[in-house]
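Next comes this protein:
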Amino acid sequence: MEATASDDTSIDRRIAARLKALRGERGWSLDALARRSGVSRATLSRLENADVSPTANVLGRLCTAYGLTMSRLMHMVEDDFAPLMRRDEQTVWTDATTGFHRRSVSPPAQSLAGEALECELAPGARIPYGRPPRPGLEHHLLLLEGRLEITLGGRTHDLRPGDCLRYQLFGPSVFATPDHSGARYVLFMV
C-alpha cells in the first residue's frame, strides 16, 4: 500500500530520488528489489518516480531490504549535519494512510551513535513491521500522551503516559493505538 501524493513536496521528491539511487548503487532491478522487500514492482516504480508517497510500512520494508533504519534513509535525503536542530528545521514525514507523523528531532550523523524521533499516531492506527532494518537495533520509547500498544516477539506492551519501553529489535513488531486515543511519543534509537 502507498499513500497518494496529494502534493509534490520536496521531501517526497528527495525520498524518491534516494530510493532510486540506493537500488542503482546495488545494481538491483525493480524485480530484484520487489523480491527482497515484498513490495510490488509497480509500487516501487511509482515510489521512485514520486507518483506516490510511501507509507510507513512500505518504507520500513524498503529500509530492511537496504539494511538501513528509516532515520538513516531520511538523513540521506537531508542536508549536512548541524549540531543544533531548531524545531522549524527538523524534517517531518507523514504517512496520511495511517495517521503517522515522524519528526526527526536528532537525525543520525556519522559521529553520533543515537538519534531521536518525535512521533504521533492517530487513534485506531496500526503499523506492522515485518523485521528490523538491523537486527538488535536498540529502542527506548517514551510515551508522552495517549495510549500505545507495542507488540514485540509475540508479547504486547500497553503503554501509558510516562512509561518507557526499552528493547532490541530482532523480529516483527507492531505499533497500535486504540480507537479512542492516539499517541505521541519520543523514540531514541542506538
Notes: Residues 10-26 form the longest helix (17 residues). The two ends are 29 Å apart (CA to CA). The chain has two domains: 2-75, 83-189.
